[in-house]
Amino acid sequence: MKVINKSFNRWAILFILFNFSEGITFATDPFDKTQRYLKESMSTPQPTKKSTLSCHSTQLSIAHETPFEQIKFIGVLIGKNSTKIFFINNNQTVMSANEGDFIAKEKLKINKIELQQISLLSWQKARSCQQPEPINIKL
Q1: Is 27 a residue whose pLDDT tops 60?
Q2: How do residues 85-125 score in pLDDT, each as one tens digit?
Q3: pTM of the predicted model, to two decimals?
Q4: Residues of the signal sequence (predicted)?
Q5: Which residue, 46, 110, 103, 59, is CA-closest to 83?
Q6: Which end of the chain has the smaller Cβ count within 10 Å, N or C?
């Protein structure tokens, strides 16, 4: 019985060593000038710059991490002194915004809220910061 346990232990140790040796990776030497070339050529490509303007890059927006396509408008509240629009994102979080607020990742400005439609201003395809593209959404 002891012979079986010793051979089993040897196989278990060999199995464990083999599995750990598979996970060992070799890194390039940062002090070797010949390997620096390889490191630079294997770097990830930089994303191309979008052609959008940065007119309101410092402006805070509601739902700033949610792309506009993922926002669903669910209601309008028209009061005597203020008008609000209610919407949800993919996480089913209900949010509200007023006229003049910026929403979504694209920082669209709410220009006008009406009972049947919302008017937004977009700078994504605009030629200048003074001439935003109007977007009208029917409710």
Answers
A1: no
A2: 999 998 899 999 999 999 999 999 999 999 999 999 999 88
A3: 0.60
A4: 1-27
A5: 110
A6: N
Tokens 């700078």 correspond to: 123
Place of tokens 């927006």: 61
Structure tokens at 66: 């949610």
**Which 3 state secondary structure label does DSSP give 94?**
strand
Nearest CA among 137, 98, 97 for reference residue 120: 137
Which residue in this structure is represented by tokens 């979504």?
Answer: 104
The Cα angle at residue 73 between residues 70 and 78, in degrees rounded to 5: 155
* C-beta of residue 126 within 8 angstroms of C-beta of residue 138: no
Quote the pLDDT of residue 118.
94
Q: Extract the tokens encoding 114.
A: 């009406």
